[in-house]
Each structure stands twice: as structure tokens, then as C-alpha cells.
Amino acid sequence: xxxxxxxxxxxxxxxxxxxxxxxxxxxxxxxxxxxxxxxxxxxxxxxxxxxxxxxxxxxxxxxxxxxxxxxxxxxxxxxxxxxxxxxxxxxxxxxxxxxxxxxxxxxxxxxxxxxxxxxxxxxxxxxxxxxxxxxxxxxxxxxxxxxxxxxxxxxxxxxxxxxxxxxxxxxxxxxxxxxxxxxxxxxxxxxxxxxxxxxxxxxxxxxxxxxxxxxxxxxxxxxxxx
Amino acid sequence: xxxxxxxxxxxxxxxxxxxxxxxxxxxxxxxxxxxxxxxxxxxxxxxxxxxxxxxxxxxxxxxxxxxxxxxxxxxxxxxxxxxxxxxxxxxxxxxxxxxxxxxxxxxxxxxxxxxxxxxxxxxxxxxxxxxxxxxxx
Lengths: 226, 137
Fold this sequence. Notes:
In chain A, about 30% of the residues lie in helices and about 25% in strands. Chain A contains eight helices and nine strands.
């Protein structure tokens, strides 16, 4: 899922300080699970902003709402009536949600309340880790199900570098060496022989170097007629 | 001005300890400042960050959470959860500009009536020293 974290209150305050009526919209999907921007966090952000703005002698009206997913039009469209009556929107969703609101409501300024950080999972309650870089050409089958692109600091494809010490990465003593994990996993699977194949430089053309990526599937794509 | 300032303080008290301690303080005829308004909770684990923020938003100059002694929570670890939430709420109050020192977490048992009165006095003095909440100025 998408992991995000709340921006500092003062940064959010500076973005919305000039508006009288602001709609704060949360998202009930990824950012709710990572406790950054769901219904509950919208309440916290709104309360913090009300107080921070009150200190500056400002009393804007902050309307709180939360939709199932900010990255799907059918949910975004349910906000239309509320959006009509406000001066700006504060989106408490990932960058995809912020952009969906901006596209659907072109006449309203939309501001982000969160920093979208990475694709990952909660390894433990309150601890989220990045496990996928979305390179568009998955090689997990070659690496025992552990991604060297996301979990090796250098994204190496043919084994660890000299900075791997006692299973940890030289970047941080807290960080596991991705390649140590791959080696351990392949050893468990009795597939160490896979490491004997030298991989050629990765084809990064599926990554985002060619700009915004799009995916098309003819069987489910219907050109909009309305 | 601050000499005559009487702070409004909200105390979120656990039913099993601090609320009992407050009751005991009353039975023992101990004086504690009338500034402290008690909100009874079934456990401090019920404390949510929004409760603490709302207390300040609605005009409190200070607030504290009083739970069981660590290791003695009736619901195992509610007081530890509360401690963490109080820590986050303090950071948010700092960010907002209200000041995290206006919020605190205390631990006590139901038999610690005198301690309840002491904590009430301590927080009242602390907040009196800090002056009114920036929201009330």
C-alpha cells in the first residue's frame, strides 16, 4: 500500500491561511491503514489547524470529510456539493488523491496535508517499510522474493557490495543488507545456484525515466462517451 | 495579570486509580485547586489524541492524564498507550504554538489520595506560571 506521513502543522497552516472556508478530505484506504490521513487523522489535523490559526487571530471554517478512496472518480464525485461551497481543499491523501481532487475540481485550489513516502507495508504496528520501488519489471522470482531494487541501498543486481557488514548495510546499522536477506532466503530454499547467473544491466525503460507511465487494457477500457 | 490568572485544567482520570485517588483525597479532606476539572475514563487507554486536543481547543489552559502505576493497568497496558499518545499530543501542541508543557501524564494508584492533590497543585502552578493558553489571549 501507499505509505504517507502528516506534514508539519505550520507547513499546512501556511498553505491554507489565506482561505475562509476549507474542506479537509481524508481517504479511507492506504493512508488510513498507515494512520496518516484517514477519518480520525482528519479530525486531528482540523483541530490542530483551528488552534494554530486561532493563535494568528484567524477563524476559518474547516469542514471535515473522508471518502472511501481519493483515487477513484466515483468516490471523488461524491464531494461535489461540498466542494462548491468552499474556497480551497486540503487533501489528506497520497499524492494520487491530491491530484485526483485537483483534476476533478479545476476551479478550487487543492493542497496536500501529507507527504507521500513510499510503497510498503507495516512490518510491525507503527513501523512501515519500503518493499517495492514500482520499477515496472518485477524480478522478485530471481531473488527469493526479496527486492534488491528497494531493499539494497545501491539497487545492486549481482550480490552485495563491500559495505555489507554482519548482515547490515553501511548506510545504517539499523538497516538490513538486502543482499544478505536474499542470500539467506535462497539458502533456505536451496536455490543458491540462482546466484551463479550473472544478470545483465536491468532494462529501466519500464521505470519512470520516460515520464508518466500509463497502463491500458482493452478488455476493460471503455472510451467515455459522455 | 498572571498573578490573578486562574487556569482551567482538565484531568483525564482512570476509573481504577486516579479517579479513586481523587475520591480518597476528598475523603481525607485534602485541599486541591478547584481549577482541575475531572473527566472520568474507564482506562487511560481510552484517551485519544483528539480528546486532548479538544480540551485545549475548547479553552483549557492545561490538561493531564492520570493513569495507573506502570505495570498495574487494569487492562494490562492502557496507561502505556496513553503515555505514548500524550507524548505525540505534546509534540502537536508544540507545533501548534500552544506548548507541550501544558500537557502531562501522571501515574498513581487509587490509594494515593495525597499524590492526587499534589499533582493537581503541581499542574495548576505550572500552568499558572505559563499564563493563559495562547488561544484565550
